[in-house]
Amino acid sequence: MSVPRPQLLAEVCEGAGRRALVTGLRGFTGVYMERELAAAGYQVFGMAAPGAADQPGVFPVDLCDRAAVGAMVEQVQPDVVVHLAGIARVEHGNAEQIYRINVAGTRNLLEALAGMSRTPSAVLLASSANVYGNASVSLIDESVAPAPANDYAVSKLAMEYMARLWEDRLPIILARPFNYTGRGQSEQFLLPKIVAHFRRRASTIELGNLEIARDFSDVRMVVHSYRRLLAAAPAGETFNVCSGRSHSLSNVLDLMAEIAGYRIDVRVNPAFVRANDVLTLTGDNSKLVARIGQVQTRPLSETLRWMAED
Q1: Which option is the CATH number for 5-183+218-244+282-297: 3.40.350.10, 2.60.40.10, 3.40.50.720, 3.40.50.1820?
Q2: Alpha-carbon span 103 to 161, nearest angstrom
Q3: Quick check: 216 and 129 in contact, CB under 8 A?
Q4: What is the pLDDT of residues 25-74, one digit of tens each?
Q5: CA 153 to CA 119: how far, in whole Å?
């Protein structure tokens, strides 16, 4: 669907003359976030992990290096910030690293931003819908009490609470994205793993609990929603970023079988089944829609087909 010309012009002018800082710029989401912000007219600067390829406007900084983070922020002087950097996998084996990067690292960033001579208009922190855990409701809105069921989720909730200490000094927006995917996501994540097996026309695949259901969105919708939240700047608020529909892994396999034209032999590996697995996560995006307008959700089949293309 084409975008009306006045709306397109407004989006291009949105970031004109403004500087955006994206942490985790070279990560899966960061690549799409950079494109989204640049298309809206922002001058985009990024923070990437030390050792990343040298590139103008991209700072190879360890988030846990307080002094380096402070120096980067002082140099960039961002008007808006999207904080994506951090440990992003539930299965990450180093719990100490999860908490150090996701909580202490985020604190370093907020401290640096609060020390700027001028305050950014919006600071968006990417949390996670994993903070809800095994919620007892079928559709999760932002009023549902968090009940994190793993270290990753606990670290994200701890980050949210820590960020509240800075709300009197910074216009913080908390985003709780549900699962999302797209081209370029690591095969360590479930959907890219499934798509990759079908692309190779593998005969078998090993997975965990096939009845686990997730609210899967397209990464392009997620970064578009983030940008619109930056423009709306609803400081002090929390938003689910999701489609409002869930798909079980069984359903994902059916969709990929239709796309690829064959069925794969699925073997359940007990090592991939976690005792504390969150069984179903389906989000309510009503609050997000009320704030930024209708979100650009895509059918999961369309996203999977895009990922499966050469």
Answers
A1: 3.40.50.720
A2: 10
A3: no
A4: 999 999 999 999 999 999 999 999 887 667 889 999 999 999 999 999 99
A5: 29
pLDDT tens-digit map of 148-196: 989 999 999 999 999 999 999 999 999 999 999 999 999 999 999 999 9
Q: Of 46, 36, 45, 44, nearest to 12 (Cα)?
A: 36
Contact criterion met (CB below 8 Å) for 213 and 242: no
| CA 87, chain centre distance (Å) | 11
Q: Residue 203 contacts by C-beta under 8 Å, 6 or more apart in sequence?
A: 264, 265
CB atoms within 10 A of CB 293: 10
The pTM of the full predicted model, rounded to 2 decimals, is 0.93
- Give the start-to-end residue ranges of the domains of the chain: 5-183+218-244+282-297
Tokens 């590139």 sit at which residue? 55
Distances (CA, A) of 54 to 43, 45, 83, 160: 18, 13, 20, 32
Helix H, strand E, coil C: the string for the chain is CCCCHHHHHHHHHHCCCCEEEEECCCCHHHHHHHHHHHHCCCEEEEEECCCCCCECCEEECCCCCHHHHHHHHHHHCCCEEEECCCCCCCCCCCHHHHHHHHHHHHHHHHHHHHCCCCCCCEEEEECCHHHHCCCCCCCECCCCCCCCCCHHHHHHHHHHHHHHHHCCCCCEEEEEECCEECCCCCCCCHHHHHHHHHHCCCCEEEECCCCCEECCEEHHHHHHHHHHHHHHCCCCCEEEECCCCCEEHHHHHHHHHHHHCCCCEEEECHHHCCCCCCCEECECCHHHHHHHCCCCCCCHHHHHHHHHCC
